[in-house]
Design goal:
Number of domains: 1
CATH architecture: Sandwich
Number of helices: 2
Largest sheet: 5 strands, antiparallel
CATH topology: Jelly Rolls
Low-confidence stretches: 84-92
CATH class: Mainly Beta
Length: about 180
């Protein structure tokens, strides 16, 4: 258990982004070929908190990938939302205090694929998008994240793809070419 009010999806720890904060990790891509990346993780769909009440507002965040040159790519925008209404009298977040609520996590994944180059340094960031209230304050729209997994699949080299395409085209042309024959051979 990571905390008395929430169990980790696996292991004993999970990540937290609160208010307008960012959870990030910098890494060097160790693949040997240019690869297409995709991302998966679990989100606890935590209800927002205000004063002394859970009130079921959404926790919005985005995920970005920034390379060493400062170029940033938006992987996607996401919302942690608790099912139920926005009722102060019976907030849907109260289910968090049950054993089942402490164990429940929801699978998320990248909306956009991205390219990773061997040896390049990247920073993967989960960025809270908590809105400001009219008085400039921010409600507690904390998001819990766990089991963040980046996978990479090598991209075929362009020359290989070109040769495969030409080979397929040659086969198609051979099949469509009418055969000539003569009755007088």
């Amino acid at each position: 258990m990571a905390a008395g009010w929430k169990w980790a999806h696996s292991g004993s720890m999970f990540g937290i982004i609160k208010d307008r904060q960012t959870l990030s990790q910098t890494f060097t891509f160790s693949g040997t070929e240019v690869s297409v990346g995709s991302l998966s993780w679990f989100d606890a769909n935590r209800a927002a908190w205000k004063n002394i009440d859970w009130f079921g507002r959404a926790n919005s965040y985005n995920v970005t990938l920034t390379d060493a040159f400062g170029s940033s790519l938006l992987i996607g925008e996401y919302t942690s939302e608790v099912a139920g209404g926005n009722s102060y009298s019976s907030p849907p977040g109260n289910g968090w205090w049950t054993d089942e609520g402490k164990k429940t996590w929801f699978a998320k994944g990248s909306l956009n694929s991205f390219l990773l180059s061997p040896g390049n340094i990247y920073t993967l960031s989960f960025n809270s998008l908590s809105p400001y209230n009219g008085d400039g304050s921010i409600d507690d729209r904390t998001t819990f994240l766990d089991d963040i997994l980046l996978t990479a699949t090598p991209v075929p080299e362009p020359v290989t793809g070109l040769l495969m395409g030409l080979g397929g085209l040659m086969i198609a042309v051979q099949r469509r070419r009418p055969r000539r024959f003569s009755l007088w051979t």
